[in-house]
From TrEMBL, chain A:
Stretches that traverse the bilayer: none
SUPFAM superfamilies for this protein: Ferritin-like
Protein known as: 1,2-phenylacetyl-CoA epoxidase subunit A
Biological process, per Gene Ontology: phenylacetate catabolic process
Pfam family, one: PaaA_PaaC
Primary enzyme class: oxidoreductase
Gene that encodes the chain: paaA
Cellular component terms (Gene Ontology): cytosol
GO molecular function per UniProt: phenylacetyl-CoA 1,2-epoxidase activity
Automatic annotation (TrEMBL), chain B:
Primary enzyme class: oxidoreductase
Spans traversing the lipid bilayer: none
Keyword annotations of the record: Oxidoreductase
InterPro entries xref list: PaaB, PaaB_sf
Entry annotated with the keyword Oxidoreductase: yes
Protein's organism: Phaeocystidibacter luteus
Official protein name in the record: 1,2-phenylacetyl-CoA epoxidase subunit B
E.C. code: 1.14.13.149
Molecular-function annotations in GO: phenylacetyl-CoA 1,2-epoxidase activity
């Protein structure tokens, strides 16, 4: 008891001194568990996040926009893989993590349970959803766990193109015909609130945050990140000439931040519970994609075995 | 054979350009070295981050354990005379 107490104290002092924890270092069991849960959820979000956008790959309005969207979706697959790798350094098993996603045991970001009904949604997602993800991920570049931090640095380098391509779509629509402007406004109306919910519950309703901050897994609170995101995004919406669907949104001279209206937390918890518009469809699509890819994995195994056999015979001869 | 757990983990090292060493980029799963290389190209070099890739089975790596950190790295700590700043050279001598 005394021993483990002092180990935890040494661990905390090490983290407080801004040192990174590496896979083989001693760490409290709860630190390991918290990280596995957070990193695997993050990985699942990248992977499920491909689904709403892949809906538009075949319907992109030009070859240029199709190539861009394909590249973005492929990046998200890569992000999922970097993160699964980071979780594996903590002793998590890839297959277990994917099973947990497919059985609904593991969570992923609720934002991906909303439908993508128009091309403008590709703009709003890049601009707002990737934008909110970037705010979180920039913070996580400084997380205390080395492999997670390195995965985040790599991801952040790739993300800025995601947000810019989204904003470009919004700019084009916002300068277009009245119908296109209406499409852009409609997408903003639907994606605004779910995007600012991405930062999670208010600080006072987020009981595990304090420990994560203490361990420097998180470096900023949910509310801090949300406020930063809103402050940054309002001028971007103004530039587009679009209106953020929040009548209470206004600049507060005193605080130097935007005040904003009450978030519908009931909707937030309903979507987490599985009652969002697309929860079932996303999980079904994910499971189907995994099953449909089964023959590829089998073929790869068969090929590897055959090659190994061939080498063996070659050596014997 | 539907169990993917027989896919080994490979560590990926990427040389970003000639003249620099290979640097650890991350890891991935693959059934053999050849496919590990192909996967590594897709996963770790989508933006021409590399001119050369190494893949090594994770199991084949022998790592020093952090508990041995002190005996392993301590000997150099008390040999300060191995560092140039240990020696005082007068300014008049110029850069050395
Ligand atoms: Fe991503
Ligand atoms: Fe992204």
């Amino acid at each position: 008891m005394g021993e483990s107490h002092s180990l935890e104290e040494r661990f905390q002092a090490y983290v407080d001194a801004e040192n990174k924890i590496e896979p083989k270092d001693w760490m409290p069991e709860r630190y390991r568990k918290t990280l596995i849960r957070q990193i695997s959820q993050h990985a699942h979000s990248e992977v499920v996040g491909m689904l709403p956008e892949s809906n538009w790959i075949t319907r992109a309005p030009s070859l240029r926009s199709k190539l861009i969207l394909l590249a973005k979706v492929q990046d998200e697959a890569g992000h999922g893989l970097y993160l699964y790798s980071a979780a594996e350094t903590l002793g998590a098993d890839r297959k277990d993590m994917i099973d947990d996603l497919h059985t609904g045991k593991a969570k992923y970001s609720s934002i991906f349970n909303y439908p993508t009904i128009s091309w403008a949604d590709m703009g709003a997602i890049g601009w707002l959803v990737d934008g909110a993800a970037i705010a979180n991920q920039v913070m996580l570049c400084r997380t205390s766990y080395g492999p997670y931090s390195r995965a985040m640095v790599r991801i952040c380098k790739e993300e800025s193109f995601h947000q810019r391509q989204g904003y470009e779509i919004m700019m084009r629509l916002a300068k277009g015909t009245p119908e296109q402007i209406a499409m852009a406004q409609d997408a903003l109306n639907r994606w605004w609130w779910p995007s600012i919910m991405m930062f999670g519950p208010r600080d006072e309703d987020s009981p595990n945050s304090a420990q994560s901050m203490k361990w420097k897994i998180k470096r900023k609170s949910n509310d801090e990140l949300r406020q930063e995101f809103i402050d940054k995004t309002v001028p971007q919406a103004e530039f587009l000439g679009l209106t953020i669907p929040d009548p209470d949104l206004k600049w507060n001279e005193e605080t130097g931040h935007y005040d904003f209206g009450e978030i519908n937390w009931d909707e937030f918890y309903q979507v987490i519970k599985g009652n969002g518009p697309c929860n079932k469809q996303r999980l079904d699509d994910r499971r189907n994609a995994h099953e449909a890819g089964e023959w590829v994995r089998e073929a790869a195994n068969a090929y590897a075995e055959k090659e190994a056999q061939r080498r063996k015979e070659g050596n014997a001869a | 054979m539907s169990d993917k757990s027989n896919w080994k983990i490979w560590e990926v090292f990427v040389r970003s350009k000639n003249g620099l060493s290979h640097k650890h980029a991350g890891s991935l799963h693959a059934p053999d070295a050849e496919m590990a290389l192909k996967n590594a190209r897709d996963v770790y070099t989508r933006r021409s981050e590399g001119v050369s890739i190494w893949v090594v089975e994770s199991e084949a790596i022998t790592a020093s354990s952090p508990d041995e950190k002190e005996p392993l790295f301590a000997p150099s700590d008390d040999k300060v005379y191995r560092h140039p700043t240990f020696y005082e050279i007068p300014d008049e001598v110029g850069h050395m």
